[in-house]
Amino acid sequence: MSQSLEEALDETTPGERLRELAASSQVKIRIAVAKNPNTPTDILIKLFSEAPLDVLNNPVISLLLLENPCLFEEMCQSNKLIFEQFELPKFFLNWALNCSKGQIRAYLARSSKIPLSFFVKLAEDKEPRVRCAVANNPCTPVHILNKLSQDDYLSVRYEVARNPNTPNNILENFALKGGEEISCIALRNPNTPAHVLKKLSNNKYKVRRAAIAANPNTPIDVMEKLAHDKASIVRYDLAMNKNAPIKILDFLAKDKDSDIRYWVATNKKSSESTLKQLAQDKFDDVRRAVAENKNIQKDVLAQLVYDQSEEVSLAAVKALYPYKSN
Which long-range contacts (CB under 8 A, 24 or more apart) does 247-254 make? Predict the structure, then answer.
């Protein structure tokens, strides 16, 4: 055992020395400091972000809470994702569930590591931001999502429409009967039924058609139709669609709108022949996107190294020689 680790574990080590040890590059030393009851409070708050279990199990915590009732709140502010990243003790989860600060309850509501009873209580929280967090959580049970889909606050219903686990009947209702914004959100959700996407692909509102073009599960025949849409925003979203067929991307690569050609150049599904064609595009941004596409052939990159645009040339060099150019 190293001397530094021995010091970090020793409960008689002065607080200032523990402060120094907390900055160690060795994880085991920092964890030892987190467990040490002589560690200064501000250091415990800092270490909570990476070693919450060790800090919470530190024997001095109960005393520190008497001195500073806001200690747990301060710890949570040091890592807002703490409830999502770690399996935390039940006493701490219960504290968060009953915390007077809505922001803390919202952090908790985003976690996948809380029991069903917590989802039930948080879904009834008086603060909309907490209910929004529940509605957005992929682990929220379906019956709770169903309840939140009828929430008085539109922002909560928006999050239900975004949730990847929202049932298709709720999404169908949002898409067909909701206002324009919530309809568009639902139409981008991969769970929205194909027949709904097909039905609304002829909608007079271009934002709805664009949302359908962006949906990775839109039927291919609908994508083919949208590739000819007169509204450029529709073709933009289609060019970005990660599931757009190669033949559609090939077609969009010839679009008169350079922004659409740019998005085709960024798409990982674009064919080698399409990328080679776009490497000759007159717009610098399109050629730079080609150089940054992981599927571009090395011979094309070699040509782009000598591009007249410095940005394009640099992007090609970075792609060809990733270590030398960093």
Answer: 248/223, 248/224, 249/274, 250/274, 251/227, 252/227, 253/277, 253/278
